[in-house]
């Protein structure tokens, strides 16, 4: 997921991986948590994650197939 975010948002964000235990998976943008595996009770998919990051850092950016409705 980090690789996909780095590729998609290379000009907009930096990705930092912070190891943790117990299945923790959180996504933060500029210190604000936008996604939590624990709160969602599931692991987020890449489409949802990319849309949430895009909405924060570059709302006008097109995501191609990730923008299409399921």
């Amino acid at each position: 997921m980090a690789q996909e975010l780095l590729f998609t948002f290379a000009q907009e964000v930096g990705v930092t991986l912070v190891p943790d235990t117990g299945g923790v998976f959180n996504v933060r943008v500029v210190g604000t948590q936008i996604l939590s595996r624990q709160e969602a009770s599931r692991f987020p998919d890449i489409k949802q994650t990319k849309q949430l990051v895009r909405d924060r850092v570059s709302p006008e950016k097109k995501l191609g197939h990730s923008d299409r409705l399921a």
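Helices lie at 2-8, 37-40, 46-57. The longest helix spans residues 46-57.
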